[in-house]
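Researcher: We're teaching a course module on how sequence relates to structure. For the next exercise, students receive a sequence and then see the predicted structure as tokens, so they can try to spot secondary structure elements on their own. Here is the exercise chain.
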Amino acid sequence: MSGFASFDPDRFVGEIRAPVAIGPAPLPSDWQHAITLLQDAARPSYASSARWAQVVQDAVIFANTRAEEAVQAGWTLGNVFGFDPDQPDGFVGLVIDIRGASVLRVDPNVAWIPHERGCRFHYRHMPDDSPLLWELARMGKGRRR
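Model: And here is the predicted structure for the students to work with:
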């Protein structure tokens, strides 16, 4: 169970915006900017409204809970928000793989995501110069909500 049963994907745009901070330390400015760009991005034409809303919500939650850990472990914006336009669904960055779960831990090469039978592992494999999710519309791969 994802824990977001009351989440309405048709209303997510204005409801998940909140100051993004990690405890007493502020979120790095490039991560704050990334979250803002993602929230404002056009939904990719191949992603349902519900799926895109989940990705955005997962990104905000991850930034609030694990960004500092990810940065310290060497994860880049490309590793977290990147995508491969040659993949059928275009999604390969960490936030795409969270799918409503909570990331338990971020190591230099893997993020631990709970699963009904234990943990799923998302391996850090995106090159640092990967296109980012909010660039889909600019590349002609998005559509307005």
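Model: If you want an answer key for the exercise: The two ends are 26 Å apart (CA to CA). Residues 49-72 form the longest helix (24 residues).
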